[in-house]
Amino acid sequence: MKRLALHAFRSSGVFALTRALSARMARILMYHNFSGPGATDVDALTVDGIRRQFTYLRSHFRVVPLLRIAEQLASGRELEPGMAALTIDDGRRNCYEFLFPLLKEFEFPATFFVVSSFIQGEDWIWTDKVIWLSEQPNPPAELARGNVEAIFGALNQLRPEARNAQIESMAKRAGVNIPRAAPAKYAPCSWSELREMTNSGLVEIGSHTVTHPILSTLTDEESWYELSESRRQIEEALCKKVRCFCFPNGTSGDYRPSQVQQIANAGYQCSVLAESGLVGSGEDRYQLPRIGGRSEILFRQRVDGAVHFQQALRAWRRS
Ligand SMILES: [Zn+2]
């Protein structure tokens, strides 16, 4: 069905049209997890999937570093046509293992946003602990199938200490021990793997905070620590300047305007959200929308701008 829909769109030329009409808007692609050939993990893009997406990007766009888009926005000039940037969140090892070889093969630049305490091996990411719990043979009742999104909605409202206590208590009630170190699927890149990637000249490392908190649950003093200390730790470990930031969770309700100002004050050149959209010439470089899509049809609809025009049409009808 999806293949048929894709074929129908392709042959009608709709994708080519929306792509041409939105050529002056940049695409920032958002990725999280990758897996080997034939893997069935729904949260991860397989190497075959990456190859298909990269082949498509190479035929229709120019893949540029995220900072190039930020610099053009800062200059106030119109954006160059056909730009796409790759961003990868959190810093899990599967990015090094499965994505990095393809970045080298295609010679595509990419920005990795890493959680510094995760790379240091101090703890694994709390959102992964929730997903891991939901994958256990006898998961906590709250995390039964179809409920995980609702639990995230509730956990995202809590301060970190209350959130962690809630996760521990869910595990305890289900009789599950959360391991201290991340299981393989959720393990981090090491500093030396990140260094190897930056030394290739293709990868830029950005900050995704120290502990991945939802910034709106923190005081301004705490968020300042998260975004300045993560930067300091990454710069010290890699001897490279950190210039890009990524909001944890990244919807518009996950931070306050004062925290956007903090990101600029800390010296970052841009920051990205998980809100979906293309980047126009007047976009705020500290609140950049991104697009994602593991399935081929979703990827094409978003990267070619079909979703962008669909949303614009809906907004116009409502006005
Ligand atoms: Zn994240």
The helix/strand series, from N terminus to C terminus, equals HHEEEHEHEHEHHHHHEHEHEEHH
The helix content, as a percent range, equals: 40-55%
Radius of gyration: 20 Å
Overall average residue pLDDT: 94
Which ligands, by name, code or SMILES, are bound?
zinc ion
Write down how many β-strands occur, each being a DSSP E stretch of 2 or more residues. Answer: 10
| CATH fourth-tier homologous superfamily of the largest domain | Glycoside hydrolase/deacetylase
CATH architecture annotation of the largest domain: Alpha-Beta Barrel
Structure, described:
With 319 residues, the chain is of the alpha/beta class. It is built from 14 helices and 10 strands. Strands 1, 4, 5, 6 and 7 form a 5-stranded parallel beta sheet that branches. Helix 3 runs parallel beside helix 5 (93-106) and helix 11 runs parallel beside helix 12. The longest helix is centred in the last third of the chain and has 19 residues, at 220-238. The structure holds zinc ion. Zinc ion binds at residues 89-90, 208, 212, 248.
